[in-house]
Amino acid sequence: MAETKINVILIGDNQQSLAKQQAILSGLADCNCKIICSKTIIDAMAKQTQDEQAIVIINLTDNSSKELQFLNELNGKKAAIIIIGDHDNVSLLSLAIRAGVKDFIDAKNYEAQLNTVFCNVKKSITQQYKSSNTKRINAIINAKGGSGASFIASNIAYVLSKDTHLKVALLDLDVQFGSIGLNFDKTPKYTLTDGLAVIDDLDAISLEAYMVKYSDTLSLLMPSPTEILLPGEVDVKALQKMLDLLKTQYSQIIVDLPRLIDPVSSIVMEQANQITLVLQQSLAQFRDGRRLIQILNKDLDMPLEKITIVVNRYDPKNSLRIEDLKNIVHHDQVYTITNDYERVASASNLGVPLCESSPHSKIAHELKELAKNLGQLEFETPKKKSFNIFSWF
Ligand SMILES: Nc1ncnc2c1ncn2[C@@H]1O[C@H](COP(=O)(O)OP(=O)(O)O)[C@@H](O)[C@H]1O
Ligand SMILES: [Mg+2]
User: Is the beta carbon of 341 within 6 A of some atom in ligand 1?
Assistant: First the structure.
């Protein structure tokens, strides 16, 4: 979405009330407002509701049931829709809910409600635009092999793609022991290496051919599971171009890094909004964590606020506490992810992210909280919230 200007379309069959409504709306300063007055409003409804940057305010006419029925069956509605109609006609309620409208205002009393309802809807869709325009790169790295960095990267990417409906790319840069493919049970037809080799000829659209789609909103870019690259074989400039291309198409980019400080990981970490360091609850790993933080902060000049620590396979009974970790690493941005061998193994056997196979488990909730913070997004709240049914009665 290129810009955040909202189109406001007032549809109805009474020019006078439409003009009055336009005058009532005070939040129109940064909107384009248009009035469409017609005896048969259905055509205008069909056309105007396809615009995802629009708020369409529909004044139902004497044909209200038919109009809502039409709206309900209409495909590809993207606009936020507000209805103005007869509150006493309760059968309209279920039709309106099924049609996915944001709110329903009583025609007899619209002067009192219209401005507040409009401003709330406008605020909510402006936030959505902001989220979809935000490009974030999250780099995930472990303090020791097997700490769970790839498991966490996979679940963060899955949660962000599922709960925000934003486009997410998960990039596996572990060109020797990459395991993202296994986590999603996917094998790439064309690999990351293939894409990097021809990067100068690619545009954002042709790059998609090198990615494997896990869902409409989550795409994976992976190295070959059979051909192993040596450190230094990834062309840093090509990778930079690839990241630039990905940024034009994806709101969130998650990079699963190998435990290696080299020009490739440095360039990713430099560009990342956040670097997550995954370690487990042992003294040796806490010490490795401290060493890595020192390298990132002192040698690579990354601010400490850019670093998040995740203690994976966390066990509250372990004598080594989070406070000990904070003292050892001198850093207090720490998350914990529960040790849950059974669920993690079952997800791995199924070849799906744990947050898909056990979405209501404690570990899934912890991963979701982490994803929310790393993605810096407000997750979508249930639709009910924006549709105030109870104000009808
Ligand atoms: N919280 C957890 N509970 C139980 N098992 C886990 C957890 N996190 C990761 N694992 C398992 O640990 C193993 C190593 O994880 P992986 O993500 O490949 O580590 P890394 O990428 O850091 O080398 C995998 O088999 C994974 O399923
Ligand atoms: Mg890994």
Answer: yes
CA 354 to centroid of ligand 2, rounded, Å: 16
Q: Which of 210, 213, 166, 165 is nearest to 185 (CA)?
A: 213
Neighbours of ion ligand 2 (CB under 5 A): 149-150
Atom of ligand 1 nearest to the CA of 179: 18
- Determine which residue's CA is closest to atom 4 belonging to ligand 1: 341
Minimal CA–CA distance to 178: which of 169, 168, 188? Answer: 188
* Mutation pick for ligand 1 pocket among 144, 151, 368 (CB with most ligand atoms within 8 Å): 151
Strands 212-213, 218-221: pairing is: antiparallel
CA distances from 358 to 29, 339, 352, 368 (A): 46, 14, 10, 12
> In a structure prediction context, what are the per-residue pLDDT tens digits for the chain, which is 393 residues long?
445 578 999 999 999 999 999 999 987 888 889 999 999 999 999 999 998 889 999 999 999 999 999 999 998 888 999 999 998 888 898 899 888 899 999 999 999 999 999 998 988 787 666 666 678 999 999 999 999 999 999 999 999 999 877 899 999 999 888 999 999 999 999 999 999 999 999 988 899 999 999 998 999 999 988 888 887 889 999 999 999 999 988 999 999 999 989 999 999 999 999 999 999 999 999 999 999 999 999 999 999 999 999 999 999 999 999 999 998 888 888 999 999 999 999 999 999 999 999 999 999 999 999 999 999 876 554 444 444 443 443
Measured from the alpha carbon of residue 355, the closest ligand is 1
339: Cβ below 6 Å to ligand 1? yes
List the domains of the chain with CATH numbers: 6-131 (3.40.50.2300), 134-375 (3.40.50.300)
CA dihedral sign, ordered 198, 201, 204, 205: negative
